[in-house]
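Intended use. Records like the one below are meant for learning the mapping from a protein sequence to its folded structure. Do not use them to infer anything beyond what is encoded.
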Amino acid sequence: MILPRQTMPALALLALLAGSAPAHDAPALDDAVASVPGGNGAVPPRQLLVMLRLPAPHYRPDASYGGRYIDDGGRSARRRITEDLARRHGLKLVADWPMPALGLDCYLLEYGEGEQPQRLADLLSRDARVEWAQPVGLFSGMGDVDPLYPVQPGARYWHVDALHRTATGRDVTVAVVDSGIDSRHPDLAGQVALTENFVDGSPYAAEAHGTAVAGIIAARDGNGGMLGVAPGARLMGLRACWQQLDHSTRCNSFTLGKALNFAIVHQAKIINLSLSGPSDRLLESLLDAALARGISIVGALDPHGGARAFPASHAGVIAVAQQDHAHPVAAPPDAPQHAVRLAPGRDIPTSIPGGGWRFVSGNSYAAAHVTGLLALLAELRPGAMPAQLESLLMPETRLNATIDACATIARAAGACPCSCATASAILPAGPGP
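Structure written out for the chain above:
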């Protein structure tokens, strides 16, 4: 069900509509399988990434061009090295991007039909001029199609409006690494500090998945729509994913790497990754660099697990799945061994491109809730490192912990903003770093 603005004067009306609408009339956004921009989702691109080390002297990020830096005199030489590698191995140089957060230049190359990507990557990695090479991994947004419930979970279980008496995420910068955000949506007008496009050959566009995630994190109140968890936060709309014709969402190692590098260089406080895919050396290195710089990272748990559990499986990333009050969620056997947090992610009303709203379900949207909650914590504890912010999430259990937002904010602020069942145990902690 798509709800135009004029039919939904308040969030409470959304819940009422949810209770009266037939489930089959209101499908959630489905984030399944897609391919390269403009593709049909059937054929993955034949691409490799090759990393060359930057020289030791300092480099300068150029904020006006998505993280590129002023040529240090050796850039053209490194490109010639890559062109030589391409000729030697029958590859085509497609694109390049500096990764100053890692001290690397990243080159995207295309290989021929029938080639084995891992064999080529191993061969290139043995060249003394190459830091490493790897196949390009493909990533998908995490969403499911589910029937509607007659409640709005963020309001009923997290008491979001009450949390805002204590914190709104004021001036906390959140990087939404996703598909494009509709920054003109009435709920998001003024909430998106900047947008950058990292998908070559496809212009920045307002797309469903990124707009839905952004709305859950930071939608403003008083616009006839919904209320985000952290309406005081400021969003970076970093388009590393693209929307397919079937509305599914796809990203890859190269686009995600460019966006993560940008988020690090431009000092995001929190990065939201509502997506999953295979383990990836470039992205692992960038996640480690972000965490070392005090940037918190939230990842959506792949409900199917297996080889596509990354980045939620990465140490230091807060792994999130949707809570289900009818049927408790169990993490897959190969889920991350660090804490898996549960948050509202089922039948969530949120923004869609064009100024309307829609109900969505999936771990993508549970992750967005936790990102918003971290923004509230970052406002209350501005000097805290990622592990310190994560330690404030209540209750403190290792696996399958359903987050108590009221208790979490009470623990950080030293005062309970709403119904805190565990307040007596946590209030002595008081405010801190």
